[in-house]
Design brief:
The protein is mainly beta. It has two domains: about 100 residues, RlpA-like domain (Barwin-like endoglucanases), CATH 2.40.40.10; about 110 residues, no CATH class. The N terminus and C terminus are likely disordered.
Length: about 270
């Protein structure tokens, strides 16, 4: 992706070079720091916060219709309505929580392009991401990029031991490691599709989770609602959701990893990671 100037307020910034932090590539060996938070007496479910593997600060901008439909640096077609972004060095499919440091508002995006190459800018958001972050009219904003890396874990299965990678986010799209029983209402190969459902449910429920699980080269996104200490409590909650999500399933979060206890809801035909 080349220079972008989608909005009239996106003028070039002269004489400034990206900071070393902006040029840093993600450290795949970074470890999450987690601290358990007890939900109350008699409730064994809890959510441990997860720190990002890397944090970058700098100017954030956006691009849209002028580039819509063009190929991105990773070979996808740029869709200005998806929650994606461009960064100079972060690995493709990195998941980044972008925070407007002025307002505190945050969005989650997936890296699928390269750039921006204007002044000290560190990230170019899609038009949709800029709209949700509230910077579309301003054109640019001072931002903080919180880069999350997948945790790798070996788990037991009917076929024996298998290795997979995962990362989970809470209702505020902060990194999280929930433990307890939850209701899986959706599984999709599309990040944007799953994120849209997650964002819709956040308006109705306090505990909503979004998990990416990569296993055997296949990537799936899970949207889960609620967190209970006992399976039967999650199944009771599943009945409450049945009218909207008739094919939901109950899963158990094992320190951030959703483990399927029954068949998943449905799979999308989209191949977006």
């Amino acid at each position: 992706m080349l220079q972008t100037a989608e909005a009239t307020s996106q003028t070039d910034e002269e004489g400034r070079q990206p900071s070393p932090e902006a040029e840093a590539s993600v450290n795949l060996d970074s470890l999450y720091s987690a601290k358990a938070a007890d939900n109350g007496v008699g409730d064994s479910s809890f959510v441990a916060p997860v720190d990002p593997g890397q944090t970058i600060e700098g100017h954030v901008s956006w691009y849209g219709s002028r580039f819509h439909g063009r190929k991105t640096a990773n070979g996808e077609r740029f869709n200005m309505n998806d929650m994606t972004a461009a960064h100079k060095k972060l690995p493709f499919n990195s998941i980044v929580r972008v925070v407007d440091t002025k307002t505190g508002k945050a969005v989650l995006v997936r890296i699928n392009d390269r750039g921006p190459y204007v002044g000290s800018r560190v990230l170019d958001l899609s038009r949709e991401a800029a709209t949700r972050l509230g910077i579309r009219g301003r054109g640019t904003a001072n931002g903080r990029l919180e880069v999350f890396v997948d945790e790798e874990r070996v788990v037991e299965s009917e076929q024996g031991k298998k290795s997979l990678r995962f990362v989970t986010f809470d209702a505020d799209v902060k990194g999280a490691k929930p433990t307890g029983w939850s209701v899986n209402v959706m599984v999709s190969s599309s990040f944007s599709e799953a994120l849209n459902v997650h964002n819709r449910l956040v308006e109705q429920y306090d505990q909503v989770f979004l998990s990416r699980v990569i296993e055997g080269g296949e990537t799936n996104w899970y949207v889960l609602v609620g967190l209970q200490s006992e399976e039967h409590l999650a199944r009771d909650f599943q009945l409450e959701l049945a009218e909207t999500f008739s094919e939901s399933s109950v899963v158990r979060f094992d320190n951030g990893l959703p483990r399927k206890e029954s068949s998943p809801t449905f799979a999308s035909s989209s191949s977006e990671a």
